[in-house]
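Next up, sample data.

:::
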Amino acid sequence: MKFKLLIFLFFTAAPLFAQQYTISGYVKDESSGEVLIGATVVDKNDRANGMATNIYGYYSFELPKGEYTLMASYVGYATKVIEVNLTKDVAINFSLKEETSSLEEVVVSARRSDENVSSVKMSTEKLQIERIKSMPALFGEVDVVKSLQLLPGVSTAGEGTSGMFVRGGSSDQNLILLDEATVYNASHLLGFFSVFNPDAVKNVEIYKGGIPAKYGGRISSILDIQMREGNNQKFEASGGIGSISSRLTAEIPIVKDKSSLLLSGRRTYADVFLGFAQDENIRNNTLYFYDFNTKFNYRFSDKDKIFVSGYFGRDNLGFQDLFGFDWGNSTFATRWNHLFNEKLFLNTTLLYSNFDYGFDVNSAGTGFNWNSGLQEYNLKLDFDYFLNNNNTLFFGANAIYHVFAPAEITGQDSNIQSFELQNDFAVETAVYLSNQHTITDKLSMEYGIRYSSFAKIGADSVSIYAEGERKSPENEIRTDAYGSGELVKHYGGFEPRLGIRYMVNSKTSLKASYNRMRQYLQVATNATAGFPTDRWIPADYHIKPVIGDQVALGYFRNLKDNAWEISVEGYYKWLQNVVDFLPGEDVLLNDRIETAVADGIAWSYGAEFMLRKNIGKTSGWLSYTLSRTQRQIEGVASGEPYLARYDKPHDIALVLSHKFSERLSLSGNWVYASGAAVTFPEGRYVISGQNIPYYDDSKRNDSRMPDFHRMDLGLTYELNSRWKRYNHEITVSFYNVYNRKNPFSIEFRQVNNNDPTFNEAEDGPITSTRPAAVKTALFGIIPSVTYNFSFK
């Protein structure tokens, strides 16, 4: 009896007294053949009966025998209605036509109009790629990651950087996926731009909390980005020419309705302009990046489809013949979608990710080359099982093989000795099971469990230290050697997930979520933002994985037929085994990284407020985040709690766009954030005539940079075209409209009246011996012009 009751509670069955038949299929864009993610197919007379498509555009649900009017809809597309006499299981594919909205009904959302209220998901944001493209940007270069920084709970590392901090987490605590492959460094030009070309991007979704069981490996957020598949109906091309870069995308149908190829490239040309400089020193410098996206798909049948996609990008910086620096990412994904039957869907994925960097130095006849990198090989099996209208199961497994190459230094002469830090190897595995469960019309849940495991393997050598003593070379008592493939250390554990949604009424819901995450990789850096030289280190014999728990509560309400959205979310996150670096320790060249770090606990909490307008001539959102992030680690700040480097109590973003006519639109952003927490020197001392700053580690991060604020504006005008299939437009952007001098860095040094970098009007009178804080701002007002075009 108890067993039957348990089964009933776990799977609330559909009515058992009538024969149920399954309706399933795909929802696609009629003009391109691209599947539509999150499109809905429902019974027009009872919209509770229906389903949203998954990330591959597939849906499945049950209805009793009878006649029905099925309605497929997706925001921005004309709704399609089909009559069906249901006497057996049927497969129905919908092709929706993109709808040209009237000026008074401009829609900027790419989701169901009431999804924020009706869905179990919370702490999750989707950004439509058209919205991202409309935002004004630095040098006119549209940036996916910088757009996410305008959402509540997501903050930036600083002016011009593409690193992001989510709900008090560091930048390495975000899992960034491109077609499910991990991107370890998502920045170009040392963080000024991200690696994601918006012309190749189809869907952008970020999970800040309530993270589904299928995701793991990071404790703060999941950024899931899917590339476009390419038009399988007709040839299509698009691109743009901007102030510092140009881009071109081609979509090529291989077999109509079955196969297509996407090719998308982007390159900056700052190095071209350097060649025209009169100064020979400038002409010999190097400064550019490029990236290339490609994706191929082929549908063998209604049950089988394959995707092959790749990303390749690289940066190259050089100062004459003295210094050179390059880094890049490459990812490769092969996916096979297989439909066993109308209820069971499988996605099998084989993934490869690579990140590497290198630099060379040639100075005063002495030089060396440095190379570092990491690779990841990943196999995933993800099942969707549409059990009935009230339950959808998700389950699967994955295995990852990690290779870390911390550093290899090759001297170019006898003055520099070549050496190599030992490589690290690890195997990470996971299995998961979750259920989306509609219990009643008002109450829905998504609950699941994930078990993850991490094995650090050889070849490796491990230093053993005297028990109870600090891990340092003088306290080392022996070194244990492990052969290739031999187990060095194993970690693992369960990661429960829970989400609950209660509908107060048709326009209002209350939500709650909890998730536990384990992170087995961390970045070793003393910087705030992510830089290419950051060193990724795995959990090992001495360093434990980070464990993060988060609870969140939310209130969601829609007004005026879903034209307005209001949401308030509060969260609390607590972390175990958080690593920070001991004062004065080196991290890049340390072959025993455990001697430079200590672990402890961290916690963050906050409230996020969002007001969003989706429909009308004027649309956009206003967000405000109030938060606090602290750490407590023995050996750091005298063992007392201290602020994390990226703690920002106040963060405000206003994002607006206004359509004056069918051709002319204006967009603008205004942001404000508390200054980052920093440690300023307490004084200085002089050694051999050099001023050396003195830092008191007991006061770690007890000061702040000045508050940050900035406004950007962009004006877009659609040009006339003689050709029906050709569209083009001009976008004029102004970054930092009111020329705010946001400090990027503050340097403490001796200044005099002849120092051109010191502003006496702002910082007061100067004496020839006065120490001063010299602020450096990266950007004033920056205008840019971009010409965009498309051929359809």
Remarks:
- The longest helix spans residues 2-10.
- The chain has a mean pLDDT of 85.
